[in-house]
Amino acid sequence: xxxxxxxxxxxxxxxxxxxxxxxxxxxxxxxxxxxxxxxxxxxxxxxxxxxxxxxxxxxxxxxxxxxxxxxxxxxxxxxxxxxxxxxxxxxxxxxxxxxxxxxxxxxxxxxxxxxxxxxxxxxxxxxxxxxxxxxxxxxxxxxxxxxxxxxxxxxxxxxxxxxxxxxxxxxxxxxxxxxxxxxxxxxxx
Length: 189
Description:
Blueprint: H1 2-17, E1 23-29, E2 32-37, H2 56-66, H3 75-82, E3 96-101, E4 104-108, E5 117-120, H4 133-142, E6 145-156, E7 159-171, E8 177-179, E9 185-187
Antiparallel strand pairs: 1-2, 3-4, 4-5, 6-7, 8-9
Helix pairs in contact: 1-2
C-alpha cells in the first residue's frame, strides 16, 4: 500500500500542479523521497514548491491531503498532523544534497549556522564521528568507500560481550539493483 500512495503522490499530485522542469527527484526509499527544487534563490530552502507551481489552484485545493496543514498553531497538533498515516512532511532540508545511493546521503545548507545532515546506511554516526559530509563529496569525485564500526553489547549466559560490526557506511555502489548505462535501474533476479 505504501508504494501505491507514494506513486499517487507523485503522479496524481506533484506532476499535476508542480512544473516538472523545476523539480528533480534525487533519492527515495519506502517511506521517504528527496527532491531538488528550483525555486526563488533569494528565499530559504523552506519555501517548498511555492515558486515552481504550474497550477496553484490545484495545489492549494489538494495539498492538505498529502502535506502537513501549516495553519495549525498548536505545536502538539501540528506534530500529530505531520506524523499522520499516509502524509508527507519536510524531514530534512538544505541548499545542497549528495545522494550516493538509497539510505546514503548528505544534506547541507549554505548557511553556516545550519548543521549538515548525514545518513550512512546502517552505521551509527554517533559512534563514527569521523564520517563527515566531505566524505560523500570525496566519494563522488574520487570513488571508493568509507567503513564504519557499530559497537554493541550482547548478553550470553552470565557474561556481557562487546561486539563490533564493520559496515560500509558510504559508498557509491548500489547493491539492490543493476544500474544501466542510461541510469535506469533494474532489480536483481
